[in-house]
Design a protein that fits this description.
Layout: H1 5-19, H2 24-39, E1 45-46, H3 51-57, H4 64-76, E2 80-84, E3 90-96, H5 97-114, H6 122-130, H7 137-148, E4 153-158, H8 164-177, E5 182-186, H9 189-197, E6 203-205, H10 206-211, E7 222-225, H11 233-245, E8 249-254, E9 264-265, H12 267-275, E10 278-280, H13 289-299, H14 303-312, H15 322-335, E11 345-346, H16 350-366, E12 371-379, E13 382-388, E14 391-394, E15 408-414, E16 419-423, E17 428-431, E18 438-440, E19 443-444
Parallel strand pairs: 1-9, 4-8, 4-10, 5-6, 5-7, 7-8, 11-19
Antiparallel strand pairs: 2-3, 12-13, 14-15, 14-18, 15-16, 16-17
């Protein structure tokens, strides 16, 4: 659900009740709208929305007339703005005055940062870039853009596999070798760990950096934000104020089509359009031409062509029925020579998740991988079973346990009071099985395409 809908519905609900006679259908619409406002707070949202988004948001209101009236009230509210293309044609997108004002404030601050002129050893940095080995010309051009620009805001874009991370590694090394302090930021703990593993010595989550900003010496620093497409609008607003006040330079690296922030987002694409960007195009993660082409097709949302390439190269199979597909998948999984932690099954529906997990766990019990007493628990109406040997994935970060959201592990001990697990990084952790959010890792409900390519 895109941002603005919950705010717009709230405006419309108030107006709707004020003009109505308070009939039963009106009360139902108001109640459901209020419920939608509350429930939609946790979903992925953007700075804009469509009429279809509003219709989807109010679809549970039983009274058709009341529902249609509410949609019209949303779109005709004096707080809603329709967005147009440069040629004056309607884009069919809407936003709110509040959102647009916030975006304007962010761009205003970003302009002030961008207009600050920097000359940090440009000539020596240029020579350093030219002398790099094992770096493509495209990557050198990216380094010139983010390190030699005299503007305060530099944007690096590229889909998964194009080498953004490699460029950021080189940028950190080049800048620090020339005496520049570099601070790495990312929206998630997992992304922060990636920066650390690649040589960044001072790294924070965006949230942690902003919270502790008074304790961090950053005057004149080069601040690098990885996975910038996942940073929410409010975080950008605060980050830009901090960057401006400390006379810092800013590099934003990401992909606007990546999984967005759970907070209201969409600023990365807007900043790219306003300040320009260098775009990495060549897919470097795949070694074979066909696999690079497939990755490009998926990145361009040309799904059919991408799947066709996978099928031609015997990387995907099709079956006549869902049951046939599930049965053959389980059979192939059982014959696979890969280790347990190297195998992952992906599906969409919860009921398929349960079927696959149950079937695969039966195989693991039979071959002795799962051992000991089986512990069962019920979470949100779903029954889950765990044994020593089960693969799990943590669904939230925990500073005390020093684990991160989406981190994988293998259970080594299970009882009703405590689970003990060994993470893939080799760390042993114990936790309360009832209170902690985790999921079976043999099968994951959703996974980003970038992790497969």
């Amino acid at each position: 659900m895109r941002i603005g809908i919950e705010m717009a519905i709230q405006f419309a609900r108030i107006e709707f009740l004020r003009r109505s006679e308070g009939g039963d259908s009106c009360r139902k619409a108001a109640y459901n709208a209020r419920t939608i406002v509350k429930n939609e707070q946790t979903k992925i949202r953007y700075n804009f929305f469509t009429k279809q988004d509003v219709e989807k948001a109010v679809k549970d209101i039983p009274d058709l007339i009341a529902r249609e009236q509410l949609v019209q009230k949303v779109l005709s509210s004096n707080r809603i703005l329709e967005l147009y293309h440069d040629d004056g044609e309607s884009s069919k997108y809407f936003t709110t005055i509040e959102v647009r004002n916030e975006e304007t404030r962010i761009i205003r601050i970003a302009n002030k940062i961008n207009n600050q002129v920097y000359y940090n050893d440009i000539y020596n940095l240029k020579s350093d870039i030219e002398g790099l080995a094992n770096v493509s010309e495209e990557q050198k051009q990216a380094l010139r853009h983010i390190l030699l620009s005299t503007s305060g805001v530099r944007v690096l874009r590229g889909r998964a596999g194009t080498g953004k991370s490699y460029v950021l590694i080189k940028a950190h090394k080049l800048a620090t070798n020339r005496g520049q302090k570099v601070i790495g930021l990312a929206p998630t703990h997992k992304a922060v760990s990636e920066l650390k593993s690649k040589g960044y010595t001072e790294v924070y989550t965006v949230k942690g950096f902003l919270y502790n900003r008074k304790k961090i010496f950053m005057k004149g620093s080069l601040i690098v934000v990885d996975e910038a497409g996942m940073v929410g609008t409010k975080a950008y607003a605060e980050l830009f104020r901090v960057v401006r006040n400390n006379n810092c330079q800013l590099i934003l690296a990401g992909d606007e089509k990546q999984l967005a922030s759970i907070e209201r987002g969409g600023m990365f694409e807007m900043l790219s359009n306003n300040f320009g960007s260098h775009v990495l195009i060549d897919i470097r993660r795949q070694s074979e031409n066909w696999s690079r082409e497939a990755a490009t097709k998926f990145a361009e949302s040309n799904i059919l062509s991408g799947i066709t390439l996978l099928r031609q190269n015997k990387c995907v199979k099709f079956d006549n029925t869902l049951q046939d597909s599930i049965s053959k998948l389980i059979y192939d999984w059982s014959l696979s020579k890969f280790k347990l932690h190297e195998k992952l099954v992906i599906t969409v529906r919860n009921k398929d998740v349960d079927i696959l997990n149950s079937s695969i766990r039966s195989l693991l019990k039979a071959n002795g991988t799962l051992q000991g007493t089986e512990y069962r628990r019920s979470i949100a109406g779903r029954k889950e079973s765990y044994m020593a040997g089960d693969r799990i994935v943590f669904q939230k970060s925990d500073k005390d346990l020093q684990i991160q959201n989406s981190e994988f592990a293998t259970l080594t001990s299970v009882n009703k009071n405590e689970f003990v697990a060994k993470t893939d990084a080799g760390k042993e952790v114990s936790f309360d099985s009832v209170k902690y959010n985790l999921n079976m890792a043999m099968q994951v409900l959703f996974i980003r395409l970038r992790e497969l390519l």
